[in-house]
């Protein structure tokens, strides 16, 4: 089956994607449809590089359009005749550049394959999800079935005990009646005794059945409690751990609350049944009474099960968090934080009755210098249903703070284990007492381990610790986790990275982006799933060149300045320089893509295609922009107004199509400011900045996170225009800026390319005068740049680094 025929069989969603693909200019859908067989048989990849072959295919394409036109003439299809004739006229623009047409058709075919691949992948994922959902649904249905069975069993037992009471009342009535009778002969007395014995036997049998059914009911309850406490609650706790670090997991407690409450209600009824049996035994008992023998054991078992259920029912629904923190579980001393607990056993009669108290552990683990803290604020609150959207029993603490205790000898551990402040884990405890209908038990819940800092500069490292712990640790109370911290398997690590973007911007990382990161961390590998990232590679306190510092710098930049562009897939982002070059060299002139800097923390750059005089593609890259730049002018305005000098010394914007072929204004137009030129609100800032560009990305340093580090060959970032020197205002001597650039001897081709560096300018050449551009120009009468083939300074708006 042809590729086009396969596309026609896809579902409506993918057909919509196909229609959106062909809404672009370049290859009309009608042409693709009617010439599908011929188009798919041609070697467009060769034609994209071979001019002669491209000319041949171009001529054959026009001939095929003529043939198709003739068919429509015979069929008297006037509208199709008109369309085919118009398409042929439009294709004439490629007569001098047939390779460009070949690249366009090749791009459309590749995009079709991507749609097919997505459809195939989605079908596989859907199948897996169906199986997973079927499994989860099956487990849920099985649990619901057991719950229904438990409720039904309780109802049957309630009826059985009612019948037992009636039977006992009948026996008691006859026994008392017979006692009042006097003067009976021996035969009558024998008959009366036989009747009473028969009633006692029936009563005894009924009591035995009732006790047997109570035992079965407790076994059912025990089975359900095991499922709830050891599986469902544990699964929820793990989902909450992942949700704390950005995973889109469902952490709603309503279903668990319903199940916990159901079992609790049934166990309370069992306790009432046992009390009823004790009451019945007090009225009527006899030798070898089974209730007297078995009831105490049943009572102890019921109380034990109820206690087990209750002790797991107090949970931390919302983990401790500060209003302005990077995420939950990072707390700062003397700064307010909030936390919410919830009782999963919901008895409305206990509303506002149970008090929850917050505290921290008094005994420090055996860690050298382990700090201890006091919880201040409103540390006691009543469980109530008013503070919950779903009507659950919650205690919502909103005004708590932590204060470090003065260090004394008792606060020190006795072992040699020593951790940094941001590796030190602490747990907050919540205590209450459940009292209801004569049953009392102490309950305790604990938060996930929190990292406590005293300075906002520690937030980045603290959040890294929270990520690592909740990604890897299955024991939520292991405060010594970082004493022997494990490495992270790549699949879990990749998920965690994607969750950071997903939670911050509503768009995670795709496989290609994660693949680039994996390559940077491990080098080229056959299978990244077996690779592991050590903790020391991820982050190290007070070290500026760790992976997390680089990654978090990008995340903060995207969240603060680029969220809309990232969410709408305008930024490719995580793409290596080699991949960038391979993608762009096949594209038409002016095609550009946006990627994150691998060497500058929180930097974003763009590269574009120029065509040399020999017709070869040449990739040029602008020096990365940082938050210092983006805080002054939006990135879309940078792209909109970016200009360089062409061969005739005329400024032009080289950015035309966002990769692969989306017109720049179509991709970014809706974000543009309405004003341009001198009226632009950004013109003042645009006038005062310079930016540097190169053919290849030589200005950017080798990344400290590159795969070379795994082999002990990591390079230090080079200084120069991509460092601090390039961030200076233009009113500094320009010579000093260029002299600040030193070639790294390990980048062998750097010196050969220095003469290819260009000063780039942005905006209107009439924006300001020479004196505005170089205030100190008088001090540099003989200003020259050896090795740089530049025109003399002219009046032109300058863009920043």
From TrEMBL:
Residues 550-672 form the SH2 domain. It is found in: Cytoplasm; Nucleus. One of its GO terms (biological process) is signal transduction. GO terms for cellular component: cytoplasm; nucleus. InterPro entries: p53-like_TF_DNA-bd_sf, SH2, SH2_dom_sf, STAT, STAT_linker, STAT_N_sf, STAT_TF_alpha, STAT_TF_CC. Its main location: cytoplasm. Residues 140-167 form a coiled coil. GO terms for molecular function: DNA binding; DNA-binding transcription factor activity. The keyword Coiled coil applies. Keywords: Activator, Coiled coil, Cytoplasm, DNA-binding, Nucleus, Phosphoprotein, SH2 domain, Transcription, Transcription regulation. It comes from the Eukaryota. Pfam families: SH2, STAT_alpha, STAT_bind, STAT_int, STAT_linker. Belongs to the transcription factor STAT family. This is Signal transducer and activator of transcription. It comes from Iconisemion striatum.
């Amino acid at each position: 089956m042809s590729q086009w025929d396969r596309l026609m069989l896809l579902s409506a969603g993918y057909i919509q994607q196909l229609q959106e693909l062909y809404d672009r200019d370049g290859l009309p859908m009608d042409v693709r449809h009617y010439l599908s067989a011929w188009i798919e048989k041609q070697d467009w990849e060769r034609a994209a590089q071979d001019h002669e072959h491209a000319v041949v295919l171009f001529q054959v394409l026009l001939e095929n359009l003529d043939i198709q036109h003739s068919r429509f003439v015979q069929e008297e299809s006037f509208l199709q005749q008109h369309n085919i004739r118009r398409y042929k006229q439009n294709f004439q623009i490629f007569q001098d550049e047939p390779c460009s047409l070949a690249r366009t058709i090749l791009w459309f075919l590749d995009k079709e394959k991507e749609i097919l691949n997505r459809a195939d992948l989605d079908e596989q994922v859907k199948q897996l999800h169906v199986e997973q959902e079927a499994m989860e649904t099956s487990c849920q249905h099985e649990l619901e079935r057991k719950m229904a069975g438990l409720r039904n069993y309780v109802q049957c037992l309630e009826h059985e005990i009612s019948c037992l009471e009636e039977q006992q009342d009948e026996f008691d009535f006859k026994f008392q009646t017979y006692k009042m009778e006097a003067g009976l002969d021996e035969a009558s007395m024998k008959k009366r005794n036989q009747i009473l014995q028969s009633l006692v036997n029936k009563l005894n049998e009924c009591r035995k059945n009732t006790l047997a059914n109570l035992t079965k009911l407790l076994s059912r309850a025990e089975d359900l409690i095991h499922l709830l406490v050891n599986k469902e609650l544990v699964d929820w706790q793990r989902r909450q751990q992942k949700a704390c670090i950005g995973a889109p997991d469902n952490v709603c407690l309503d279903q668990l609350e319903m199940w916990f409450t159901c079992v609790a209600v049934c166990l309370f009824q069992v306790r009432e049944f046992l009390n009823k049996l004790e009451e019945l035994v007090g009225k009527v008992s006899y030798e070898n009474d089974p209730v007297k023998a078995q009831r105490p054991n049943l009572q102890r078992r019921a109380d034990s099960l109820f206690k087990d259920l209750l002790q797991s029912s107090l949970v931390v629904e919302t983990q401790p968090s500060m209003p302005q923190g990077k995420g939950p579980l990072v707390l700062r001393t003397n700064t307010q934080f909030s936390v919410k607990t919830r009782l999963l056993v919901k008895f409305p009669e206990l509303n506002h009755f149970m008090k929850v108290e917050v505290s921290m552990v008094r005994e420090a683990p055996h860690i050298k210098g382990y700090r201890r803290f006091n919880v201040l604020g409103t540390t006691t609150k009543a469980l109530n249903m008013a503070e919950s959207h779903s009507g659950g029993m919650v205690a919502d603490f909103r005004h708590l703070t932590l204060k470090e205790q003065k260090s004394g000898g008792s606060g020190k551990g006795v072992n040699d284990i020593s951790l940094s402040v941001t590796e030190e884990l602490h747990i907050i405890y919540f205590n209450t007492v459940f009292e209801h209908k004569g049953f009392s038990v102490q309950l305790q819940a604990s938060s996930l381990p929190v990292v406590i800092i005293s300075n906002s500069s520690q937030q980045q490292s603290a959040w890294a610790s929270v990520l690592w712990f909740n990604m890897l640790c299955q024991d939520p109370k292991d405060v010594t986790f970082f004493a022997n911290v494990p490495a992270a398997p790549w699949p879990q690590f990749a998920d965690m990275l994607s969750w950071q973007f997903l939670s911050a911007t509503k768009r995670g990382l795709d496989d290609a982006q994660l693949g680039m990161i994996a390559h940077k961390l491990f080098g080229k590998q056959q299978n990244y799933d077996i690779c592991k990232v050590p903790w020391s590679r991820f982050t190290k306190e007070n070290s500026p060149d760790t992976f997390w510092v680089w990654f978090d710098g990008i995340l903060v930049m995207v969240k603060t300045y680029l969220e809309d562009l990232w969410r709408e897939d305008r930024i490719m982002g995580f793409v290596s320089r080699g991949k960038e070059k391979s993608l762009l060299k096949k594209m038409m002139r002016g095609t550009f893509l946006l990627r994150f800097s691998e060497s500058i923390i929180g930097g974003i750059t763009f590269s574009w295609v120029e065509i040399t005089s020999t017709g070869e593609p040449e990739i040029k890259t602008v020096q990365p922009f940082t938050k210092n730049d983006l805080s002054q002018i939006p990135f879309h305005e940078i792209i909109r107004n970016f200009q360089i000098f062409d061969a005739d010394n005329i400024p032009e914007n080289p950015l035309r199509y966002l990769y692969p072929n989306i017109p720049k204004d179509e991709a970014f137009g809706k974000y543009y400011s309405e004003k341009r030129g001198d009226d632009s609100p950004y013109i003042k800032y645009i006038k005062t900045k310079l930016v540097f560009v190169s053919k290849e990305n030589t200005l950017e340093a080798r990344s400290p996170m590159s795969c070379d580090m795994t082999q002990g060959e990591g390079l230090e970032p080079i200084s120069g225009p991509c460092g601090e020197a390039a961030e200076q205002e233009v009113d500094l001597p320009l010579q000093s800026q260029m002299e600040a650039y030193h070639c790294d001897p390990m980048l062998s081709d750097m010196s050969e390319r220095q003469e290819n560096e260009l000063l780039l300018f942005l905006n209107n050449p009439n924006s300001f005068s020479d004196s505005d551009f170089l205030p100190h120009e008088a001090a540099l009468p003989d200003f020259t740049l050896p090795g740089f083939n530049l025109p003399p300074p002219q009046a032109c708006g300058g863009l920043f680094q």
